[in-house]
Amino acid sequence: MPAMPIDPAKARLVIEHKHDAPLMSCVFDPRGRFLFSGGRGPGVMCIEIATGEKTTLTGHDSWVGEMARAGSDLVLTGDYLGRVIAWDCSAEPPRERWNIDAHPSTIRALAVSADGETFATGDRDGIVRIWQTSDGRQLHELPKNVHPIYGLAFHPDGQRIVSADRQPQKPQIKVWDIATGVLAKKSGSTRNISRATSPDASSPHACSASDEASTIPLGLVREVRTISSLTPVSRRS
Asked: What tens digit of pLDDT does each residue of 53-101 get?
């Protein structure tokens, strides 16, 4: 299905929902029926879009900072104690399908592959793990980073994953081969790295912005690099 054209000038506020704690994450479910939100509290708020009815989903014991939709009917939520919960959105209200203690520390990044079959988590200890979405089974773990992981994105081919760390002086964007754990490419960058995939999923992009200001106006991005422009990692025989 082609992407729907969006005219920012026509954007308007339709409704506003208040979260019970300072907001840290939110995401729509794959079918657009529910809006999930998490924050500085253990509860996940689930709002039915059509009626505005709110349900608090329990299962986390800490702040819920990461969320992502997966496949046709799941939303994944990650918390500061390292737990990931998969919520089945085919139920009404959504209910827990499975939960895993994915990391021993705070989950700072959560990403889902384009086909929805796998997802990745990154934590403040620099660990990146790849999981099977259907049941939360661990598939791979990448070599540990020295610095916390603050961003993850799957390459559209599903065979590689991009990580962004939180090195104090010069954070790095790295491209990993998932199956082998081999570091393929890397790039130095500035702080506050974000990441995104192009709308047609043809090319992942890594974006970095200066930390000289707390906000960046739309369109004023300091640096954008496509994965093909990153530096290959040389290997000695």
From this structure: 999 999 999 999 999 999 999 999 999 999 999 999 999 899 999 999 9
Q: What is the dihedral of CA 86, 198, 34, 62, to 10 degrees?
A: 50
| DSSP 8-state symbol, 114 | T
Three-state SS at 228: helix
Which of 233, 145, 223 has the alpha carbon at shortest distance from 183? 233
Q: Which two tokens stand for residue 185?
A: 């490419």
Question: 3-class SS at 10?
Answer: helix
- The two three-digit tokens of residue 70, written as one number: 């997966």
Name, in order, each residue with C-beta under 8 angstroms of 3's C-beta and a sequence gap of 6 or more: 199, 200
> Positive or negative, the Cα torsion across 3, 38, 62, 151?
positive
Residue pair 68/112 in contact (Cβ under 8 Å)? The answer is: yes
Catalogue all structural domains in the chain, each as residue range(s) with its CATH number.
18-101 (2.40.10.480), 106-231 (2.130.10.10)
Q: Which of 112, 122, 42, 40 is nearest to 82 (CA)?
A: 122
**Is residue 236 pLDDT above 80, yes or no?**
no
What would the pLDDT profile of 189-198 be if each residue is shown by its tens digit?
Answer: 544 445 444 4
Contact partners, residue 33, CB within 8 Å, separation at least 6: 48, 49, 50, 89
H helix count then E strand count, the chain = 0, 20
Query: What is the widest separation between alpha-carbon atoms in the chain?
Result: 63
C-alpha distance from residue 27 to each of 6, 46, 75, 133, 150 (Å): 19, 10, 8, 17, 18
CB 14: neighbour CB atoms within 10 A?
6
Q: For the chain, how big is the Rg over CA atoms in Å?
A: 18
